[in-house]
Amino acid sequence: MMRRRSTLIAGCTALAVALGASACSGDPVTAGGGDNGGDKALSGQSVTVAGVWSGTEQKNFQKVLDAFTAKTGAKTQFTSTGDNVSTFVGSKIEGGNAPDVVMVPQLGVLQQFAAEGWLTPLSTTAEQSVDDGFAPVWKNYGSVDGTLYGLYFKAAHKSTVWYSPDALAQAGVEAPKTYEDMLKAGRTVSDSGLAAFSVAGQDGWTLTDWFENVYLSQAGPEKYDALAAHKLKWTDASVVKALTTLGELFKDKQLVAGGAQEALSTDFPGSVEKVFGPEPKAGMVYEGDFVAGVAHDQFGKTIGKDAKFFPFPAVNGGSAPVVSGGDAAVVVKAGKNAEAGMKLLEFLATPEAAAVWAKAGGFLSPNKKVAPASYGDDVTRATAASLIAAGDSDSVRFDMSDQAPAAFGGTKGAGEWKILQDFLRDPADPKATAAELEAAATKAYKG
């Protein structure tokens, strides 16, 4: 799934370098790398895997699973869960048909699964790979009460604003450094004939990402952490202020392509199409690094030339936000072949596995042992380098809605997703929206 989730990145210097980088091709990676070197120890066994990915992401992850098969002999079967991973997995466990491995896109869901007693701790081999190749923050994200359950295989950079260089050049504007300048530049783009932003309001998770970047920059990391843990109420003045700031964008028909009504009927791939498709309707689209995969794979854009990004800019004098996310692999106790599932996690912890998807594109690994040459273009290489460099940075924060219980931060048509969609539809009363968010959060966190 093309999500935040789908998100540690920092280093605006590295990002700035990436803006002018041109794409370059790399040699394809064979499944498992070279002769695979496997002993086929799992021949005849099968591993079932569930995750939110579909489309291009599912296709590319299948290449990783095929590499595992080539190395171990184990067959794999992947099932796309849709957005509601928690509901999907819970029903499968209850029905006696649990997957062996789940790729969990939300920190809150991983914690929920662990609290339910559904997960098997990572093996010594997998944990050693995490200790050797990953920054400590990723081990912390994958741990619950000191026990490591999740391996972060795929990471996402959630603080990038993608744009058409032609659109900005035609309007005579440059990549902005502040949020206020971004809106000003957007209005200039609009005056030149295109809307400023394509907003994927049909997918509520994109709206949580908008909020998180504004809030982190405006309120700072300490309040961000407190709100993420619901130690700070959503009715706090800092939340109302961030909603007010975001509402200035949402209510401006000059800035949002087609206004709120069209935004609410636009999904994430559609939002990218409106900027990089054959008939552009907007100059910019905010979302994570995975925008590049859609722009390249579906619309043939050369990343770094036809499609560029600038870091999400600082808001009201704050620091530029750095929001991350990622998908963690976990082993389900109730799976029919959890033992082979753990072998899959041990494979996913290797740079060999990450390199398969890295070469295919649309992927960042938090594994510092993945060679830069594994990535197919200079922009992704620079972004991956900043991901690794950000591992020990206190400025980086994990996607807030992904840290929340799924009922609040990760359920289609409910909780934060729906409330922010309603806010996009009518942003006139930020205080009322904050009260709705607090009521929904209180119920979800108690549950």
TrEMBL record:
Signal peptide from the UniProt entry: 1-23
Taxonomy, superkingdom: Bacteria
Transmembrane segments: none
Ubl conjugation listed as a keyword: no
Family recorded in the similarity comment: Belongs to the bacterial solute-binding protein 1 family.
PANTHER family in the cross-refs: ARABINOSE-BINDING PROTEIN-RELATED, OSMOPROTECTIVE COMPOUNDS-BINDING PROTEIN GGTB
Name of the protein this chain belongs to: ABC transporter substrate-binding protein
Gene source species: Streptomyces polyrhachis
